[in-house]
Design a protein that fits this description.
single chain, 306 residues, alpha+beta, Trna Endonuclease, Chain: A, domain 1, Yope Regulator, Chain: A, 2 domains, five-stranded antiparallel sheet, 41% helix, DUF4268 domain-containing protein
Length: 306
């Protein structure tokens, strides 16, 4: 590894910051890494970012030698200081004791917290440039996590269970028909799910509102002024959406609130209407199939103009 990346912080960490998709593919995650060497107390976390499908925090600790106790301690220290949902440890090889430690953590934490061990390697064919090769060697035990989820489900309302079943079926369709939309397999028990847009402050939503099903682009940064500015930049190209959706598309700056949204609604529809489930799923997929390409086109235009 050190023949390719001489220095962990200066070379490998910065390379991974620019190539988060490689790690994301290995983890099955829509991953965006946003910062290297984040200060956590008196220490520096290698990388922090976001799972764009769930808008949750991901942290990554790297080393270019076999795993050691020091880095395991650092990993837990950084987790305590950043409250992540996904904790990733990357190294060329894992001691069996450290792999077992990650397995233990996965077995004894709830379904919202996930620990991964990823072995890093590189391959070269003839005189080609080295290509990274990541292999997941420790990951959440789906069966154990499922047991935790089932225990928690005992206290869920019938509507929460209906949402969970609906989103699970919808995500299965999406993974089959539109795998580029998301890598997420997590079925929410809420009235909404999110899909990545390409930046951590903006995301797509599919939701059941009081009025009925909705597909939206949600501007959700922590700063209201940032959201309004991004929303207004987007509106400069609204004619593309207007032509496709006409009066059915709405632009809501949501005065007095932090977020903004652009959305397409379907009148009437309730997740408890089981007989109409297939119809609702078809509507969500067909609407997003029109909505996403146009909004991605606008995103590309805005980024090229920046």
């Amino acid at each position: 590894m050190r023949s390719i990346w001489k220095h962990e912080a200066h070379d490998f960490t910065l390379w991974l910051l620019e190539n988060a998709d490689v790690l994301g593919d290995a983890l099955g995650m829509d991953l965006e890494l946003t910062e290297a060497e984040r200060r956590v107390g008196g220490f520096a976390l290698d990388l922090i970012g976001t799972d764009l499908a769930t808008n949750t925090v991901v942290i990554v600790e790297n080393q270019l030698e076999q795993t050691d106790h020091s880095h395991l301690g650092q990993l837990l220290t950084y987790a305590g200081g950043t409250d992540p949902s996904t904790i990733v440890w990357c190294a060329p090889s894992f001691r069996e004791e450290h792999r077992a430690a990650l397995d233990w953590l996965n077995e004894h934490t709830d379904e919202e917290t996930r620990f991964f061990g990823v072995e890093i390697a590189a391959v070269r064919i003839d005189e080609s440039r080295p290509a990274p090769l990541f292999r997941v060697v420790a990951k959440p035990n789906d069966w154990t996590k499922q047991l935790h989820t089932e225990r928690a489900a005992v206290s869920l309302s019938p509507k929460s269970l209906a949402y969970q079943g609906f989103w699970s079926e919808l995500l299965t369709r999406i993974r089959s028909e539109h795998p580029a939309w998301t890598k997420s397999t997590a079925a929410s028990t809420q009235s909404w799910i999110t899909l990545p847009y390409g930046t951590s402050n903006i995301w797509y939503g599919m939701a059941f509102t009081i009025a009925g099903p909705r597909v939206e682009l949600y501007f959700g940064a922590s700063d209201a002024a940032v959201n309004l500015a991004e929303f207004e930049r987007f509106l400069e190209y609204r004619e593309l959406l207007d032509v496709e959706f006409g009066e059915s598309i709405k632009y809501d700056a949501l005065p007095g609130k932090k977020a903004c949204r652009i959305h397409v609604d379907r009148l009437h529809g309730d997740v408890l209407d089981v007989d109409s489930r297939a119809d609702y799923i078809d509507w969500f997929i067909s609407t997003m199939a029109k909505f996403r390409p146009i909004t991605q086109q606008i995103r590309a235009t805005l980024e090229s103009a920046s």
